[in-house]
Write a structure and sequence with these properties.
By secondary structure, the protein is an alpha/beta fold. The chain has 13 helices and 21 strands. The structure holds N-(aminocarbonyl)-beta-alanine and zinc ion (ZN) (2 copies).
């Protein structure tokens, strides 16, 4: 099976070149001009940009959390991702307390394998950092997993202490693996929550107070200090605070191996969204929550000065009204008080076009930097490159044929995510994926879905030692 994509402008992190792409058996076989078209399916991409498929390094599909489960599974979430230009993602498998990391990974592999429509991999969240767990870390490479996450928040659920955090980082680094951290101070959140509830402060906006800027910034500063202490590399997920960005910047300037991720919602939304009449604010409850205008500005600056390496979603959708037939319980669980609202927001379909519209169309970043943030850097950081994350000979043909002129209005009624609201409802963006392929198979063609459950493959990743 051979395909030629011709007449498009190919944009990678490094180059912008008019060249045609020859795809054979799912792999990019050649880049150039004037390929023989005999026996090939030919796609004329005149007037479009050809971009590497998006890689979302931070998602939570079908994740048990907050007394329920996130509403997108590995099929609905993958279909939505593909419509939005994302062809691969790395989801979080969870260790069950008392059980091994390996079993956590295997449980998530089982959930995904028959449903997957795009390619995927896993990080493993360390929730029970016993001596045995720390010793097990090198063994997870056999499962194709080379990154671990610890939570400094969610006290009594996922939170680990500083000793466990440093032990995890150190063991991971010794074995060429990467540690990731959810950096908010869980003890401070628990204390604040108790105080706020005692004062009868149950409105949605108090989630922002319980997760204030200093609570995130403290944990990020601490995490950066631990990089200095342990010398182990660290990737800080979903940065939402200006002082958090600054802590990463300072660490990087010192030459520390610290990397930063932000998520699309923090570029567009502030804490005003949680401060709305009634229950509306629950739609925006996630941790860390979006903060002030100045934090938003600082995150944009972090993107342009390269303090931040990746753009993710932290896609973790919950129904706004989960009481309807066929739905899992959702945000309504928190109708009495903000602290009972499941934490998480949808975004897997929105990330790629929203960043293009807000950052490339406005001239804030170049198309090449867009590719770097949404695809190449996630691939390089997490050991998927060059199989994924670029358009090069030998790489998987994970390709977005992107129409830079197409206007699209984002609406929950037309999006493909399995959730009844969209954070960007009514927003019109310019630039939308026209065709999306994974390993040469066309999954999205305009409004048509050609994908199928079971096509998506688990991608085993490499350790730093194997890459070098
Ligand atoms: O609110 C969020 N972010 N939910 C998903 C879990 C996490 O903390 O990443
Ligand atoms: Zn988190
Ligand atoms: Zn997350």
């Amino acid at each position: 099976m051979k395909t030629i994509i011709k007449n498009g402008k190919v944009i990678t992190a490094g180059d912008t070149i008019f060249q045609d792409i020859l795809i054979e058996d799912g792999i990019i076989k050649a880049l150039g001009k004037n390929f023989s078209e005999e026996g090939c399916e030919v796609i004329d991409a005149e007037g479009t940009y050809i971009l590497p498929g998006g890689i979302d390094p931070h998602t939570h599909l079908e994740m048990p959390f907050g007394g329920t489960v996130s509403s997108d599974d590995f099929y609905t979430g993958h279909k939505a991702a593909a419509f939005g230009g994302t062809t691969c993602h790395i989801d979080f498998a969870l260790q069950t307390k008392g059980d091994s990391l390996t079993n956590g990974i295997r449980t998530w592999k089982e959930k995904a394998k028959d449903k997957a429509a795009i390619d995927y991999s896993f990080h493993i969240a360390v929730t029970d950092p016993t001596e045995e767990t720390i010793e097990e870390i090198p063994a997870i490479v056999k499962e194709g997993v080379t990154s671990l996450k610890v939570f400094l928040a969610y006290k009594g659920v996922f939170q680990v202490d500083d000793t466990a955090f440093m032990q995890t980082m150190t063991k991971a680094a010794e074995n060429g693996m990467l540690t990731m951290v959810h950096a908010e101070n869980g003890d401070a959140i628990a204390l604040k929550t108790k105080e706020l509830l005692e004062e009868g402060k149950t409105d949605m906006k108090y989630h922002s107070e319980a997760h204030c800027e200093a609570i995130e910034a403290e944990a990020i500063n601490r995490a950066v200090s631990f990089v200095e202490i342990t010398k182990a590399p660290l990737y800080i997920v979903h940065i939402a605070s200006g002082n958090g960005v600054e802590a990463v910047r300072k660490g990087r300037r010192k030459g520390l191996p610290v990397m930063g991720e932000t998520c699309i919602q923090y570029l567009y939304i502030t804490d005003d969204a949680l401060d709305q009449p009634g229950f509306e604010g629950a739609k925006y409850i996630c941790s860390p929550p979006p903060k002030k205008e100045e934090d938003k500005k600082a995150i944009w600056e972090g993107l342009t000065d390269k303090t931040i390496q990746t753009m993710a979603t932290d896609h973790c959708p919950f129904w706004f009204d989960g009481t309807k037939e066929g739905r899992t319980p959702g945000k309504e669980l928190g109708k009495g008080s903000w602290d009972k609202v499941p934490n998480g927001v949808p975004g897997i379909e929105d990330r790629y076009p929203l960043l293009w519209d807000g950052a490339v169309n406005t001239g804030i970043i170049t198309p090449n930097r867009f590719v770097e943030l949404t695809s190449t850097n996630p691939a390089k950081i997490f050991g998927l490159y060059p199989k994924k994350g670029t358009i090069a000979v030998g790489s998987d043909a994970d390709i977005v044929i992107f129409d830079p002129e197409k206007k699209h209005t984002i609406e929950a009624s037309t999006h493909h995510m399995n959730v009844d609201y969209n954070l960007y409802e009514g927003m019109t963006v310019t630039g939308w994926p026209q065709k999306v392929m994974v390993r040469g198979k066309l999954l999205v063609d305009g409004d048509d879905w050609l994908g199928e459950a079971g096509f998506g493959e688990f991608v085993a990743r490499k350790t730093e030692n194997e890459i070098l």
